[in-house]
Amino acid sequence: MKNTILILAILFSGIFSTNAQESETFDLTIEVKGIKENKGKIFIAIYDSEENFLKKEIGVIADVKDKKATGILKGLKKGSYAVSLFHDENNNKKMDTKIFGIPKEPYGFSNDATGFMGPPKFQDAKFNLDSNKTITINVN
């Protein structure tokens, strides 16, 4: 009888610890540097796959203060992510572009990734999140 209770206790503790690990979430702090103007807002978006990179995002809006900004994304699951952001200098809630879609406003990506004739690839901007983390992105 004692062995049965011990086996059940071990099984149930394993189930509960697995569920706790699966539901574990982390916070990501994004520090934005290289801002030239103390006006507007920083729009920060995060992506969890190559398929939704620069398409389906969740994010935050950060205030610019002393030519810096900080955004915090809470409750993210363990995994690979990429971040994109832009400095909405004129507060019109969109990234202004020139001809051919070239950005007029400063922007940046995680890992300070850059692309050739367009945005970087998800693979170049991705990072792993497996604990609370702070990353720095410099705007162009």
From TrEMBL:
Record's keyword annotation contains Signal: yes
UniProt keyword Signal present: yes
Protein name (database record): DUF2141 domain-containing protein
Recorded superkingdom: Bacteria
InterPro entries, A to Z: DUF2141 (IPR018673)
Keywords, ordered alphabetically: Signal
Pfam entry (one): DUF2141
Signal peptide (residue range): 1-20
